[in-house]
Design a protein that fits this description.
By secondary structure, the chain is mainly α. Helix content is about 80%, strand content about 0%. The protein has a domain of about 55 residues. The chain has two helices and no strands. The chain starts with a helix and ends in a 14-residue tail after the last helix.
Length: about 100
């Protein structure tokens, strides 16, 4: 087997390993997506009262708290941004144009 044949075989092997790695990552991403979708459906079912279980209660409360924080933060950001639009009080006169 010549040097080029060995290099070609090594490259093919590396490509096969890389493809396996990509497939593993894609499978893990798909699994994560499936868990996320299951969680969203479960949350909606708990909120509607169709499902109830003690293990779900803590997770549902955590989501409720996070949702409350995320809706409160934009309102708080809006309130602070209007205050920063005003120049700070100064005991110095305004600068003269040059």
């Amino acid at each position: 087997m010549g040097l080029l044949d060995k290099a070609k075989a090594a490259a093919e092997q590396a490509a096969a390993k890389a493809k396996e790695g990509v497939e593993d990552v894609q499978t893990k991403r798909d699994l994560s997506q499936a868990y996320s979708e299951l969680g969203k459906v479960t949350y909606r079912l708990v909120e509607s009262g169709e499902v109830s279980h003690s293990e779900l209660t803590t997770h549902v409360e955590k989501i409720r708290n996070l949702e409350a924080r995320s809706t409160a933060e934009p309102a708080m950001a809006g309130a602070t941004s209007s205050a920063t639009n005003e120049p700070p009080p100064s005991n110095q006169p305004p600068a003269m144009p040059t």
